[in-house]
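User: Predict the structure for this protein chain, please.
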Amino acid sequence: MQLKREHLSANRDFRDPWTRIEHLVGAYVTGYVVLSVILWFGVWRVMPRHFIRLWVVGSGGEGILTAILLVTLRLLVRRHLWWPLHQQAAHDGLTGLYRPTVFWEHFGHQVALAYRHQQPLAFAFLDLDDFKQINDHYGHATGDAVLRAFGQYLRQQARAGDIVGRLGGEEFGWLLPGATVTDAQVAVERFLTLVRSDPIEQNPEITFSGGIAGLTGHETHPLSAWELAEAADRALYQVKAAGKAQIVMASSPST
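Assistant: Here is the predicted structure, written as structure tokens:
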């Protein structure tokens, strides 16, 4: 995969437009409610009793009612409109895994956490072998079924807290917070055995290759998220050049 630095740019806003709109509306509604409550209690304490009824049925009372309606509307929109759209925007429609932009956002965040808490982190870059031949020989419907099943297997193998995504075409990412590269290699090889033992559709055997890179959290010269991803990418291409159905651990550029 041809990595681009903007994938892991710390200054890039990966939030989808619906998220930004929801945050703006939320800030407006919250401010409106707070102001209405302040006015309500302020007026209740200082106004004479015979003005209270007039204020409640006038603009102030309408303001409280409007605020309640806005809060209710916001909750309904968030549950029935924003959340489904957010899920759709964040996940690949075919495999159900994270889309690239969302995956790389989590990736950068987890690298920062690994150094902050001095914990290991491993990243596996996976690529289906001979996928073009699968499409050409069995058809694109079978190719889609292979990708869909591969994504399902990957979700099943991933631990709670792991982050998995489809990074483009037949390439996938598996991020394992708290795992060493050795732990990741064991997990990925176990996953490879599972995939090879369970043929998908008419294809007799599905295999993949993988490059693994990781952090210890105690590096003398800390790696950036970009450097970690690039190390796994180089290891993957090393595997693809040598053959297929292999897992290689990248040599760490930092000691």
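The radius of gyration is 26 Å.
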